[in-house]
Amino acid sequence: MKFLLTTLLALVFYTAFSQKNQTTGNISGTVLLVDGQPAGSISVSLIDLAKHTLTDEHGHYSFNKISPGKHTIRIQMLGAAQKDLAVTVIAAQTVKADYQLSKENVQALQEVIIGGTSNKFSKKESVYSARLPLKNLENPQVYISIPKELIQEQLAVDLGSISKNVPGSGIPMLANQGRVTFRSRGFETEPMVRNGVAGFAYTAIDPANLERIEAIKGPSATLFGNNLSSYGGLFNRVTKKPYNGVGGEISLFGGSWDYKRMAFDINTPLNADKTVLFRLNGAGTYENNFQDAGYTKSFSVAPSFSYQITDKLSMLFDVEYGQAEGTSVVRFNPYTKTDPASKVVKVQNIRDMGFPYDKLFGNNDLAYRTQMVNVFAQFNYKMSENWTSQTVMSRSSTAIRGYISALNGVSDTELTAMVMRGYTSFIATDIQQNFTGDFKIGSHRNRLVVGLDFYNNTNTFDRVQVTGPKVNFVNPGNNAGISKKIIDDLAPTKAGKIRNEANADNSYAVYASDVFNINERLLAMVSLRLDRYQADGTTVVATDVNTGAFGQTALSPKLGLVYQVVKDRVSLFGSYMNSFTNKNGTKINGDMVKPEQANQVEMGVKGDLFNHKLVGTISYYDIKVKDIVRPDVANNTYSIQDGDQKSRGVEIELTANPFPGFNIIAGYAYNDSKAIGGSPDTEGLRPALSGPDKMVNFWLSYKFPQGALKGFGAGFGGNSGSSSYQTNTKTSKVIIPGYTMFDATVFYDQRRFRIGVKVDNLTSEKAWSVRLTPQSPARYLANLTLKF
């Protein structure tokens, strides 16, 4: 009887369910970009039923169990006109509602998943470089993008390894707390930007959360301000965003010097309509130094959350948390003093100084600890068919505790360690409001962004500087000359070198940039920034005395012309760009110094040929920095503003896919930098720390596209740089020798897993950064990635 009753109830429920399905229907479709590639994370709405969803990475969407009759599908995308599609649902059937954009350029306005091109290392379109819907061929500024596909193939587990693919970047300078600095057109450039806004970290930045790195070249203060960019440009970290789907991967690494690493990437929708998405990235790493002492260990986690609130309003919220512990890397400042009466220039080469390549001159107990917490929120609102609003807020903070050291030469064979012990914190807040329009005046297309930008920076220092005992670095024996006990014992006697202070500054800016299509092939860009800088000065905690407060106002223009010789294939461009740096100081006549200025003129050609199989840029630039401030030697309480610097050169970068499975990346950078005026001791010389004047990079990769070996591949590449200077004056020079380093990898990539092996610096070439930090000899790395 029980069995009969159960069967009867099941039959009733099944019949009711079947009848309901037979009285409803489904809607599904695919949204494609202009070039036929899928458009991911696009808002799709069923207007009359108030249902919303997002397209997945293949551009697909669906609505199920919809009542029969006429309905309206609305497709909303930033930077494109909304599209309404009329559909008629029939019971027990699925109606298709596909759409492909015909004219709008959306690849540069929304982070979408774009696949399909065989030139897998060429992902040029950027939402950030111009803050406008511009294709690379329409942009009069040069930028290079390093996508995650290349990062994965090269097993690049740190920012320095990724930057090898940027022409002119050179050997990265690694600071004592893991912070990395690159070269760009002869100037130091840091990765201070994250998704187009402030995202600095004065510590190591783990690449686990990176979608790509964008190296935006040249003075860029007009759109990014002087807090985030240098005269050489900026490095923008583009992070992974949540997508409409369930998936992820776990990666395990192991290698030389007890290298251990685990990274993870997990993504899932949080609701049935897939309008609320969540993604979690993170990694943990441990590595010993290749030298006689030293280590680093770190952990990072980056949750991100997106919500399509309505068909017009979306939100992205994410957090970047990291903590690290380690020992300072070698930072050596050689003894450069000479006899004032001697007219002989003192020339030294780090290779010949006798400074040991494999010695840290420190102990593992002399360590630092860092913590980074960066919080970001972004709101996008489609105001109308032609206008969008974007509000972005970021809060970045880094705290450093413990011991940070440098090695200072006190003779040609001796050094002392300078150690800072204590606490330092850096906090930055960036709030931006952008209004972006894409409209026509007559028959001429205009793309306009108007923005407001507020940036606050607050720094706190509570530390003591201690000088350790002398050490003969040519014959050091077992004497490190530096340990936690030695420094702690000396610290109480160094009361005169305590730094316990706080400082802060604010920047208020308004900017606008307009791209005007004179005709279909010729366009002009006009941009301007008005920036007000207010330094609150430095307050000494012990006395509560504040000094150094000042304010400056600067204008930063940007102009550009682009002519497409072959539409969507080849363009010629020219531009004028500006950056500035706020400087404090008073001239002997009582006037305040002006902001230092850098102006660049650039011209070149961009190409995207043979159905994206050959993509590249050739450019010539000329940068002039003026009004460089230096101390007035005759009156040391005053400043002189009479220095200039010229930096000009040629850069070439290309990616190519000559035949299926084979990909090429190549770059060349030539930079001629020279100090003009200013200090007589450097007049006419290449500034120290400018890096090599000639650099080459390349990467060759082949992956079997079919057959029994499908998924198996190998890569080989190299980086070369000419000699450069750590010190370059008319009385003393410290030369850093040129270098050529090669890397190689083999891998097997399948749908559910990936195995790879990599060797960096195959020949164990000895090379040094601009801070004379020795680079690792041959390093072996193995990886297993499980995908789900």
UniProtKB/TrEMBL annotation:
Annotated signal sequence range: 1-18
Pfam families from the UniProt entry: CarbopepD_reg_2 (PF13715), Plug (PF07715), TonB_dep_Rec_b-barrel (PF00593)
A molecular function (GO) term: siderophore uptake transmembrane transporter activity
Keywords: Cell outer membrane, Ion transport, Iron, Iron transport, Membrane, Receptor, Signal, TonB box, Transmembrane, Transmembrane beta strand, Transport
Gene3D superfamilies: Carboxypeptidase-like, regulatory domain, TonB-dependent receptor, beta-barrel domain, TonB-dependent receptor, plug domain
Major site of localization recorded for this protein: membrane
Subcellular location(s) of the protein: Cell outer membrane
TonB-dependent receptor-like beta-barrel domain: residues covered: 333-762
InterPro entries: Beta-barrel_TonB (IPR000531), Beta-barrel_TonB_sf (IPR036942), Carb-bd-like_fold (IPR013784), Plug_dom (IPR012910), Plug_dom_sf (IPR037066), TonB-dep_rcpt-like (IPR039426)
Any one cellular-component term (Gene Ontology): cell outer membrane
Assigned protein family: Belongs to the TonB-dependent receptor family.
Protein name: Iron complex outermembrane receptor protein
